[in-house]
Design a protein that fits this description.
Blueprint lengths: L8 E4 L7 E6 L16 E8 L2 E12 L2 E11 L14 E4 L3 H12 L8
Antiparallel strand pairs: 1-2, 1-6, 2-5, 3-4, 3-6, 4-5
Amino acid sequence: MVKFVDRVKLNLTTTGTGTVTFGSVVDGFQSLADASVVDADVVRYAIESGTNYEVGTGTIGLAGGTYTMARSPSSSSQSDNSAINLGAGAVCFLTMLAEDVVQLVEDILNLDGRKIK
């Protein structure tokens, strides 16, 4: 199950298209630790790097106080929705995706196996 948290936004210290390493917290936001994110948590994320973006599902890694995230993009500014090539200054924030809201509505409409009209 995906873990949702409030107001987490961090700078990324890695470049390229692979696993990301989280750096400092963006001013005004909370850290992964403050949001009780732990090793192996599955989260929804958005990454911005220049004018490029990527959203998807990530799996958090935590070793020696360093947080990482394996990326699995579902949508991006790339024509094939693949991982974007991160450059300096990239940021990542944890968020809900539209697909999460659709699932919630379906769950409400099918409460206890009874279709709500």
